[in-house]
Amino acid sequence: MTRFLVVLCMAVLLGGAANTASATLIDFDDGTAGLAVGSFYPGVTFSNTQWTGNLGLPGGSGALGIIPITYDGWEYHWLEPHAVVATFSAATSSVSIVGLDVGMNGLTLKAYDAAVGGNLIGSSTVYGVTEAGVGEFYTVGLSVPGIMRVEMFQPLDPYGDGILLDDFSYGTVVPVPSSLLLLVPGLAGVRAIRRRLGR
Q: Tell me: the pLDDT tens digits for 122-167?
């Protein structure tokens, strides 16, 4: 009976762990500055988006990042009508992006449940602590099932602040129920009891 319980607990634990996460990271360093990103990367298509040099800004993972093709007022600054858009070929449940030079105009990530239109199913915004955000970088992310499209933009425009984006990550996250986390100490207890009983 004890052996059966141990085997059953291990099977559940390993089965749950095998489905916890699957993610893709795009660092944008394999593109060409000035060209549209489009469907260059399998599984995701970018709209109003081009590669650009990241100007050596803190938080960048290489030489290139992305900005919109059309923007508002001054270079590297864009509001929601000119959002950088990523549309997925299959629904995902976790998305994040790194914003470089994020100042007080901020960076917003919105998620929708359709490739076009659809319902807003999640939103996250971060603001820098200085007007221009020099040297500030932040990761903005969402975890919600059924994401088919995300839009990224600056929510405010009172400051002469533009940003760059880098390190786009997306994937499927299956949360492990907290009850599974209790199995580890439980298995340790079963083992201790078996040793004490000499089995």
A: 999 999 999 999 999 999 999 999 999 999 999 999 988 899 999 9
Query: How many separate helices (H) and strands (E) can be counted in the chain?
Result: 3, 9
Nearest 10 degrees: CA dihedral of 28, 31, 37, 43?
Answer: -60
Q: Which residues belong to CATH 2.60.120.200 in the chain?
A: 21-173
The total number of residues written for the chain in this structure: 199
Please tell me the CATH code under which domain 21-173 is placed.
Answer: 2.60.120.200
Strand partners for 85: 47, 151
Cβ neighbours for 61, distance < 8 A, ≥ 6 positions apart:
27, 29, 98, 166, 167
